[in-house]
Amino acid sequence: MDKKNLFRISEVAKMFHLSASTLRHYENIGLLSPAYVAPESGYRYYSTEQFEILNTVRYLRALDMPLCEIEHFLKNRDIDGMEEMLCQQRAAVIQKQQELKRIEQKIERRLNWLRDAQRAELDQVTQMRLPETRIVWMENPLKLQGFLDLEVPIRQMDQSDVEAVVFLGKVGVGISEEHLRARQTSIYDGAFLILDQEDVYSGKTSILPETLCVRIRFRGSHPEASRQYEILLDYIEKENFQIAGFSREVTLIDNEITSDTGKFVTEICIPVRSRG
User: Fold this and answer.
1) DSSP state of 89
2) What is the pTM of this model?
3) CA–CA dist 41, 27 (Å, integer)
4) Which residues, 6+ apart, have CB-to-CB distance to 106 below 8 Å?
5) The dihedral of CA 169, 170, 171, 176: what is its sign?
6) Are residues 137 and 257 in the same domain?
7) Is the residue at 214 inside a domain?
8) Is 87 contained in some domain?
9) Residue span of the structural domain in which 37 resides
10) pLDDT tens profile 58-82
11) Are residues 139 and 240 in the same domain?
12) Is residue 92 situated within a structural domain?
């Protein structure tokens, strides 16, 4: 065979910035076979006519198109087929851009939470307004003796809707208004996941309206929270407030961020309203 217009696999790989193993993979799956294989040596050669096919494959792979779809197109290529394929890829790119934007927003929120927690004034009761919040609430009595005890309810939420929990916004626990008034703070009435505006969640959610609350932040996690509840409840009585909902207890810096438990920061908010 005339090898004048044939190139060895190593030469083709270098020209197209591919590895020889990639070209062999294309051969194995039937995407592009060598124009000639030397019977004695087994050397593979490609013709210049195949360069256009390789250009097409590289272009479509750059668009993140699966090899199986590329193979189908090469065997049935025409103008309409290329237009349809490019339209499909454009739609996929737009969807990916939206997903990346959502991830960026999640990262930005996480950075803000982390910076806010690092600057937090600890062991001080403050009044603040909590904005309207959408949550997933899982009612189940919990006694948290360690910071890892919250993993089970988180995984139960995860089974309900993987998409929402995978980014783990603020996950927390709450004590009911009834138990707060009775100062029964050793057992939590449930766990919750705070959903951001862009989160998609197919399960049941609740909307918590904007509310006034009293808040304390402290060094530690849920097992150290009991004393902090006493401080908040004393403050509520002193200021003549009335408890107006379940507490929202969230660890802002936890085992997910640092292995040093001495750096954990937890926040407790109790909704309140003025008496009379």
Assistant:
1) H
2) 0.66
3) 17
4) 167, 169, 196
5) negative
6) yes
7) yes
8) no
9) 6-77
10) 888 888 888 988 888 888 878 888 8
11) yes
12) no
Using DSSP's 3-state secondary structure scheme, residue 86 falls into helix
pLDDT at 162: 42
CATH of the domain at 14: 1.10.1660.10
Q: Exposure string (b/e) for 208-243, b if CB count within 10 Å is 16 or more?
A: beebebbbbbbebbbeebeebbebbbebbeeeebeb
Strongest mean pLDDT among 72-76, 156-160, 172-176? 172-176
Helices (H) and strands (E) in the chain, counts: 9, 12
In this structure, is residue 93 part of a structural domain?
Answer: no
Query: Is residue 252 domain-shared with residue 128, that is, in the same domain?
Result: yes
Indicate if 16 and 148 belong to the same structural domain: no
- For residue 269, the domain's CATH number is 3.20.80.10
Query: If we measure between CA atoms, which residue out of 260, 228, 248 comes closest to residue 147?
Result: 260
At 95, is the secondary structure helix, strand, or coil? helix
Q: What is the spatial distance between Cα 233 and Cα 177, in angstroms, rounded to a whole number? A: 11
Task: Give tens-digit pLDDT for 245-272.
Answer: 999 999 888 877 888 888 899 999 999 9
Q: Residue 268, CB half-sphere, CA atoms under 13 Å: how many?
A: 29
Determine what percent of the chain falls in helix, strand and coil, rounding each to the nearest 5: 45, 25, 35
Query: Please, what is the end-to-end C-alpha distance for the chain in angstroms?
Result: 100
Helix (H, G, I), strand (E, B) or coil at 165: helix
Instruction: Say if residue 52 is in the same domain as residue 149.
Output: no
Contact at 8 Å (CB) between 23 and 66? no
**With 0-12 CB in 10 A as exposed, 13-18 as middle and 19+ as buried, what is 166?**
exposed
Please tell me the total count of domains within the chain. Answer: 2
Per DSSP, helices labelled H in 43-78 are 51-62, 67-75
CA distance 32 to 53: 8
